[in-house]
Amino acid sequence: MRWFLALWLVLSVCPPVQAGEPVDVALVLVSDVSRSIDPSEYDLQKQGYFAAFTDKRVVAAIRGGAIGAIAVSYVEFAGEGDVATMVTWTVLRDAATAAAFAQRVRAAGRSSSGRTSISSGLRQGMAELAGWGGGEGVRRVIDICGDGTNNSGEEVSAARDAAVAAGITINGLAIINDRPVSWNFAHVQPPGGLDNYYRAEVTGGPGSFVLVVHDFASFSEAITRKLLQEIASR
Q: Which residues pair with 221 in a beta bridge?
């Protein structure tokens, strides 16, 4: 009975949306769930998203736009083919709708594990944005975070270039893995650093940027800062 009441509450606050309705930005959150991210780190990611979307600064940024609304969906990726949209498009207008979306993200179970196909995550983000539509006036952003390089699927730069050509901005959050092991050291700490890898291979488009977080415990504040930049970038 409790789960039914919780579901009813979420649906009543976040009713089904009409794809393409007016919003200031359509934002796809694309999150790395590959095997280099252990269960405790995954939990810190989910708690970080929850904290960010319930932060008063983020709610104020949402309400401060010309329309006062954003559309958001949440995607998880691991290896090629291990990609899933965990929370479909939701329009956020105020503290209640933002909190309900945050709860849905936090409650969603882990979709997979395995290798790291950033390119597949980007392709899923592009598909989400194509499904949303919204016309030429809507800013379209993919917000991708991860702790390693692309080691599965197509070249990540090819997916990046296709997204940028479609008018999409890709921003990155490079999580510096503070507990690397021998088998994944080169993956999580590539030559030049993961942040530079993201700048060179992953992000692109008007106003794109990369933020760096040096441990998973700092993820919450980093994703909050990232959302504030993305929502307020007009």
A: none
Residue 92 token pair: 């956020």
**How far apart are the C-alpha atoms of 54 and 224, rounded to whole Å?**
10
Tokens of 177: 């893995």
Q: In sequence order, what DSSP letters do the residues of 59-80 get, joined into one string?
A: HHHHHTSSSS-EEEEEEEE-ST
Dihedral sign for Cα 104, 142, 55, 222, please. Answer: positive
What single letter denotes the amino acid at residue 194? L
Task: Specify the residue for token string 């997979």.
Answer: 112
At 46-91, the pLDDT tens digits run: 999 999 999 999 999 999 999 999 999 999 999 998 999 999 999 9
Query: H or E element: which one contains 161?
Result: helix 156-165
Residue bearing the bigger pLDDT, 17 or 28: 28
Residue 209 CB neighbour total at 10 angstroms: 16
Q: Is 137 helix (H, G, I), strand (E, B) or coil?
A: coil
Q: Do the Cβ atoms of 213 and 173 come closer than 8 Å? A: yes
In this prediction, residue 129 carries a pLDDT of 96
pTM to 2 decimal places: 0.89
